């Protein structure tokens, strides 16, 4: 980080974020999804899939989750799989019309491999325990070890009631972030590599900017959470805030950020201004943003399909 900019430490240039969503911690899996597929290890093994994401040019992975899934017991995702050769891996990673040009080149090494416990099986190294929190932390560290950023994205979407209780909402986030901060490699490897997307699309929960009907607003949930997490790791966490309460303009995808008072009044929109005024006085104002800046929401869908495409390994998760 350089002030509010994410930069390449080698040349000082701004880093363009090229990311994808990897669902699973919000759909009853308690882990990123798709590892049940079987067959080729290139399509089944978590560590090898993460390595391929890096080679495809991604530098960020967004991990949607809900608290219910993090509290569930881990599922057994040991799966029979067969190995792939470097040549087979290249065919997965290089566009067919460019294969002849680049197939002779050697693939970069996998900086975060996982040793198989038994030949012919994938994912046996995934952590167990009584909940899936350890798996989320393992996934987060594995992705960052490949040189990518991670976005922890709370995505309730009507599945649980935490956003209706500010104290419960803030406490849940503080508990998770305290686990992240507790990792022995936090300061060396994880600080300022993890974005906290406090809540995905609050409109899905009927949450507006302001508190109403005995329920907190996004204003209170966002700043209450950010204040608490900043106390845990000052200057070592990045925040993302999504807009809400402006469906009258079709802005119900986390992009409800209209601040023009005339438009707000004439269209009956929730007012984002008080939130931004309070945010400006916070010490983390330079480390807060949103996914929809500069219209990226409208160009992101399918972008990687149309345009193609040295960190340590994760440490053990401590009990603290």
TrEMBL record:
MF-aspect GO terms: hydrolase activity, hydrolyzing O-glycosyl compounds
Keywords: Glycosidase, Hydrolase
Ranges of residues in domain Glycoside hydrolase family: 129-210
Gene3D superfamilies noted in UniProt: Glycosidases
Gene Ontology BP term (one): polysaccharide catabolic process
Family: Belongs to the glycosyl hydrolase 5 (cellulase A) family.
Annotated protein name in UniProt: Glycoside hydrolase family 5 domain-containing protein
């Amino acid at each position: 980080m350089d002030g509010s900019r994410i930069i390449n430490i080698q040349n000082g240039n701004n880093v363009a974020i090229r990311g994808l969503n990897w669902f699973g911690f919000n759909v009853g899996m308690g882990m990123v999804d798709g590892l049940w597929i079987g067959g080729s290890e290139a399509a089944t093994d978590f560590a090898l899939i993460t390595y391929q994401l890096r080679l495809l040019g991604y530098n960020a992975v967004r991990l949607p989750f809900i608290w219910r899934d993090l509290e569930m017991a881990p599922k057994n995702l040991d799966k029979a799989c067969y190995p792939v050769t470097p040549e087979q891996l290249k065919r997965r990673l290089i566009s067919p019309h460019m294969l002849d040009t680049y197939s002779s080149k050697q693939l970069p090494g996998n900086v975060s491999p996982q040793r198989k416990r038994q030949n012919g099986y994938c994912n046996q190294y995934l952590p167990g325990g009584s909940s899936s929190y350890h798996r989320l932390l393992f996934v987060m560290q594995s992705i960052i070890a490949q040189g990518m950023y991670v976005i922890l994205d709370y995505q309730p979407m009507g599945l649980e009631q935490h956003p209706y209780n500010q104290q419960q909402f803030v406490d849940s986030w503080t508990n998770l972030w305290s686990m992240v901060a507790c990792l022995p490699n936090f300061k060396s490897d994880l600080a300022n590599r993890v974005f906290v997307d406090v809540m995905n699309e609050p409109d899905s929960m009927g949450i507006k900017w302001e508190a109403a009907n005995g329920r907190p607003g996004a204003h209170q949930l966002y700043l209450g959470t950010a204040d608490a997490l900043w106390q845990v790791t000052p200057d070592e966490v990045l925040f993302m805030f999504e807009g809400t309460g402006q469906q009258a303009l079709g802005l119900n995808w986390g992009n409800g950020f209209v601040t023009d008072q005339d438009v707000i009044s004439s269209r009956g929109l929730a007012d984002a201004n008080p939130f931004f005024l309070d945010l400006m006085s916070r010490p983390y104002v330079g480390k807060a943003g949103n996914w929809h800046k500069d219209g990226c929401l409208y160009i992101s869908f399918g972008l990687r399909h149309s345009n193609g495409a040295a960190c340590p390994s994760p440490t053990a998760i401590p009990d603290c």
